[in-house]
Amino acid sequence: MENISRNLEKDVNKLKIPEQEKRKKRWTLLMIADNGKVVMLKGYKFFLGGLFALLLTATGVAIALSYLYMNLKSENTHLIADSSEAKQQVDELKDEMDLLMARLIVTESKIESIHAEDPPPPAKKDSAKNDVATVTTTPPPLAKPPEKVEDDVNQTSNIVEIKNFKVFRIQGTSNLRVRFDIKKIAPDNEAISGRTFIILKKKGDPQEAWSILPSVSLRNGIPALKHRGQFFSISRFKHVNYKVDNFAFAKEYDTGTVIVFSTTGEMILKNTIPFKLESAVSDESN
Fold first, then answer.
1. Which pairing describes strands 278-280 and 160-170: parallel, antiparallel, or unpaired?
2. Considering just the CA atoms, what is the radius of gyration of the chain in Å?
3. Burial of 259 (0-12, 13-18, 19+ CB in 10 A)
4. 250: domain CATH number?
5. For the chain, where are the alpha helices, taking DSSP H only?
6. Which domain holds residue 277?
7. CB distance 185 to 260 below 8 Å
8. Which of 9, 50, 60, 223 is 20 to 30 A (C-alpha) from 66?
């Protein structure tokens, strides 16, 4: 008799039990609305990856721009330092030039004084007249007359002009204020820079009685140190103010001369203006 149970066991053993497939792990982003509805977001990984890539790109651009900015800032700082050093060297060269000019003037004056004080030539002996010395005297050279200072000769300019020249004295003090407007009349659009001086005097007085602002030495009525004038730079016009406290007033001053030099030391304007000394309560009252 056939053993059915044993045959069944053999058939069962012959059957291969299918292996369970491993399931891949997946992340799913679920969002729950206020009404309880569940919404599943697919592809959020790509969104987050793109956002992260964009953040990295923005960070890289910011770092590159910061690096460029720091380089430009450092270069600009070096340029400013070089410009300041060059300007200082130019000022030093101007001072040396003015000093050399002053020494040249002093040397010329010493030479002139030496020539003026030369002794007469020695006496000549005449052997034909018993060795009796005959002296031929020559009159000493006449002293050179002082140079005439043409203080009233104006030098006009087609570059700038002077307007509204006024001289004030603050009441109850010895403080001097001089004000005027310097106006550009040149037709071009370029800015003009230079330096100004003011000479206060009484008409007909010698140069020694003049007062000059800022205080420098004069040569033939012209400031010798041109770079010490008050600086200005204009595109149209500018109000110029001179303030001198404890000024040694000479009430007879009735004439003012405004002298304008270019930045290269060339005189571009000389304008002599009569004035009447005015009185002011304070600096702000005029």
1. parallel
2. 48
3. buried
4. 2.60.40.10
5. 4-14, 44-116
6. 160-285
7. no
8. 50
